[in-house]
């Protein structure tokens, strides 16, 4: 009798004939090649199978995203992916994403059906890994072993994958939709940056304990980050699924306006448009209706009870299959690794004590989140020999191997050293989170891989600081939630483009915080590592015991960091490297295949203009002292134009000339009272100053005027509402008087 595989027991496909689906996809590919289907129609179809176009390639080469629900992947599945990487993947590596997926870069379109069948053979699907669908449903990588947990949410998250995979609403949504689960208040799955975020809860129901979730809705990063609203403090586990469907229904039904603009089609924009309370009322109405015919109590209870999570001993899940491949005795128990300088680093950063006595979980961090076929096989074998035969992908692009007995820790340390997962790269390099950027993505502006390597080569240790890098404003590297975040940008200098990064500070969404990183300006890619180095030094010198970095930023003050940014932003314009990204020989040029300044990136565009203007003021004050009048004029005029432009863009228009920008500002913006002062003379003054010679102008007058305008703009930007409107200054005054 054939033994049932674990992935067959989990059965995320609910018995669906996956192979017929893949056969249909293959037929569509043939139709494309025979010019029987429009390329744009094929594009929409392939995206539902997780197949993306890639940079510098036509329809013949693609990136294949693989859904790994909750990042839970068995060793046998890892081996299958290793085989695929070796045979079919042009990049020769698998990339771990911040959403617990795996991406395979540079695959021939003709090979994709074969790859999908090989994945299906081990219970993996790519269905709805992309497109306007319920994307990969994630959960905390520590669930099941976390000492702080209420209960293990993994079975509930996998059941949610089953519930929505191929759901009638799932791939016809206005935009992508993301759901996550956390087992504790620590919230390692980042609930508040998801469309639906769930935190495990337990409450008493008479003499019984009832499992349920605290539910958040309407979060998301992307170009316009918003954190989720608390919807319910407690929803029972069986009620959660009809509730989640009710939320999808409301999004589907009422997101009509959002569909008109892809860059504003996430659920967070629907909530901003109709208001949270109205949204909640609509959800409750749908929820009450759905509860009457979505009765899943028995199905859910049986699924969770029978969920075959492997465990090495009865100390784990007593109903889980035992991993019989585990070795019995350690190989390196007599080695004196404690004298190795890396041992303490290993214990502190690469291991975590499980709630089960005597067991540890091991972190493996491949640089840039990339693993070749050999490393995938090595990790799969180690998981079988020392763990429970599975690993978890984390949002920080690590692999977690749980269920390692304490007596095997020296073996684990040897494993990391032997396979160059520790000690080869700097510790800084090991900790950086990075999307592929322009390595493969059509939207990217810069190459985060190279930037991460550049930081790693120049900084040994980050001392706990979390760095997140994205190649564009879309936040695939989750730059908004890092202690230090970067996303790719550019700056035109003397007619040439220089690679830059926009800098954000103080992001943090642990423990359900709603702290999104604050944009403080732009820095040349060449010098960005120097800025990081200065922050690491400042952090080491001035942090308090137990202080989080965002608390440190608040205590030290954002101006301190702006000054460090300014200090490291100066580069001689004739410097050859100023126009090259680190590690790239060719001169930098904008090759993104999509507009960067779309409505979706509007907030970051506004912030960049504002903080560039603030930097100009800092520098102009020094120019005053140096009596460098022409520099004062240049920087002040630039600040005036940037601040005016950021509000004009908010109106949905994009004038390009100075005259048009200032005209629109005076005629459209000034009369709205978004700013607290009257700036109706700004255009007249701008052109008087622009065409005046240096000895005809009063530099201090220009600086004082501009400083007030920038200050007024800064305060106005702080009044930006979720619906992308600005509360009038007059309204603020009235409220204060009340």
Give the helices and strands, then pairings:
Blueprint: H1 6-10, H2 18-33, H3 39-47, E1 51-53, E2 61-66, E3 72-74, H4 75-88, E4 94-96, E5 102-108, H5 112-120, E6 138-139, H6 154-164, E7 179-182, E8 196-205, E9 208-217, E10 229-236, H7 237-254, H8 256-259, H9 267-274, H10 276-291, H11 297-306, H12 341-349, E11 351-353, E12 359-364, E13 370-371, H13 373-386, E14 390-393, E15 399-405, H14 409-418, H15 427-431, E16 433-434, H16 448-458, E17 467-470, E18 484-493, E19 496-505, E20 518-524, H17 528-542, H18 549-556, H19 558-567, H20 602-625, H21 629-650, H22 658-669, H23 682-690, H24 699-717, H25 729-737
Parallel strand pairs: 6-7, 7-8, 16-17, 17-18
Antiparallel strand pairs: 1-2, 2-5, 3-14, 4-5, 4-13, 8-9, 9-10, 11-12, 12-15, 14-15, 18-19, 19-20
Helix pairs in contact: 2-3, 2-5, 4-13, 7-10, 9-10, 16-17, 20-21, 20-24, 21-22, 21-23, 21-24
Give me some keywords for this one.
five-stranded antiparallel beta sheet; 15% strand; globular
Can you describe this structure?
- The chain is an alpha+beta fold.
- It contains 25 helices and 20 strands.
- Strands 1-2-5-4-13 form a five-stranded antiparallel β-sheet. A five-stranded antiparallel β-sheet has the order 3-14-15-12-11. Strands 6-7-8-9-10 form a five-stranded mixed β-sheet, covered by helices on one side.
- α16 links the parallel β16 and β17.
- The longest helix is centred in the last third of the chain and has 24 residues.
